[in-house]
Design a protein that fits this description.
The complex is a heterodimer of chains A (290) and B (253). With 290 residues, chain A is α+β, with helices and mostly antiparallel strands. In chain A, 68% of the residues lie in helices and 8% in strands. Chain A is built from eight helices and four strands, in the order αβαβαβαβαααα. In chain A, strands 2-3-1-4 form a four-stranded antiparallel β-sheet. The radius of gyration of chain A is 31 Å and the shape is elongated. By secondary structure, chain B is of the alpha/beta class. Chain B has a domain at 102-166. Chain B is 30% helix and 25% strand. Chain B has helices spanning 53-60, 83-90, 108-112, 114-118, 123-136, 152-164, 182-199, 210-214; strands at 2-3, 14-22, 28-37, 42-47, 68-73, 76-77, 93-96, 170-174, 202-206, 220-224, 227-232, 242-243, 246-247. A seven-stranded mixed β-sheet of chain B has the order 1-11-10-4-9-8-7, with helices on both faces. In chain B, α6 packs parallel to α7 (182-199). Classes of the chains: A alpha+beta (290), B alpha/beta (253). Chain A binds chain B through residues 2, 4-6, 8, 10-11, 191-192, 194-203, 205, 289-290, and chain B through 61-65, 83-84, 86-91, 93, 95, 101, 103-107, 110, 114-115, 117-119, 122-123, 162.
Chain lengths: 290, 253
Amino acid sequence: MKRGETSLLPLEDAREAALFFVVGALCFLAALAALTAKSTYGAARAWTAEVEGEYTISLSDAAPQDAQAATLLVQSIEGVEGARLLSEAEISALLEPTFGSRGLPADLPVPRLIAVTAAPEAGDIGRALTATLETAGYTAAVDSHSAWAGDVRRMLGTARMVAFGIVALLASTAIAVIAFATHAALLARRDIVDVLHIAGARDRFIARLFERRFWLLGLRAGTVGALVALASVALLIAIARSSGNRSGLLPELTLDFPDLAILVITPIIAGLASRIAAGVTVMRALKSVM
Amino acid sequence: MTQLRPDIFDEAAVRLDAVTLRYDASGEILSGIDLALKPGSFSFLTGASGAGKSSLLKLLYLARAPSTGEVSLFGRPTSRLTRDQLSAMRRRIGVVFQEFRLLAHLTAYENAALPLRVMGRKEAQYRTDVEELLAWVGLGERMHKRPETLSGGEQQRVAIARAVVTQPDLLIADEPTGNVDPEMGARLMRLFIELNKRLGTTVIIASHDLGLIRQVDAPVYHLANGLLARTSPEPGKTARRRGDGIEIKAEEE
């Protein structure tokens, strides 16, 4: 259509308003699912990276000076970047969820804990830590957190797959809905299509009219859906921050560049999906007439 | 009633060879139709409602393919054309429908210019021509009105303007006077005759208005029971005759 010319298709009607709502809602859900998948992936990487290079050494029946000596010994082991003996206050804080804020019972045998950070390129130093401490005569248990990290990885991997599955399902649903709506629009405007066809319009010419209409519809509906998703995420972030979000178990609630890219790409994908679905539907319908 | 014989004109604008048409499992709407019309001829098609006039016209303006037989236009068998070639051939045909089939959201001017837009012409190239054409059909003052604000006769004239705006080689009109009063019907008929005379357009008009048909001395083909027959004038008797300024070229064989 050239500038100033009236479109050969009439302005959208109630059916397209309903379709606009459906596509917008699907885009909102798809954007939300994509943001969830992305933030879950980021959280999984951050959590596992955080715990995979760390070890906790538990020394039973060790006097304070023995624990200090063991810490110095650990610091000398190859591959150890840092080792620190946890204070009684820190241990009390760790056990606070179990024993409350009034401190630990005096007769409770609490082990000494050494927090060890491995050098990034060191690999698994758990066995070296255990062997060195046992050779030195300590009764020590080394926790590499690997079992917990593995559970987190598996759980987040599943969550990520589910989120991607939802995105794929929503996208394919949106395309199917658009294809169905295009077909309905074509049937409703059969008279116009017939007049254009008889006037000598090529199939591509007619298809382009519907492609242009549904590209704009998908783009606009997708933009609205993405903006609502953006507002929803911003609201979630605000709520999480106001409540402190101390659990550390929620996925990262941020809006960084990849998140904004998802929100920008969603309407474009919706527009393209609408355009392609419209084009294919119209071309297929036209092939059924001479 | 004389059965039409398969007159074969090499240069026929319209030629039907043993054409039959049936919809789905129903019986034949058209049976073994043979027809040949010379370029620049003017013909009528009559028949009772449901006789198949509109179906025959659909074959001619390439909205349907025959079940058997061949439809050739301008010397080319249409069954061998690609979809793009069919579109190009449709651009050489103007069609006037009984129910007008104007696009309600476009003005009279935009409706008349529709085939030119379809052909990819720029408005600057055709604006003057379309305005002159609409003035010629008596709509110079109302060209920017939408169809809903025009009378039946005015809408029909817009439809005629749309049909002839590309100066087609073939003009097909399906009951063009069916929705207008007799006076307007006569005016529209004079328009068709003038088109035929001025542009040499081959004209086929389907109508059951015998009074209107008698005003024009042109061949009349009658459809009944799926068969096409020529009823007036008698073949041969009107050869080289002129009536109302129309040369009955189909009679010259």
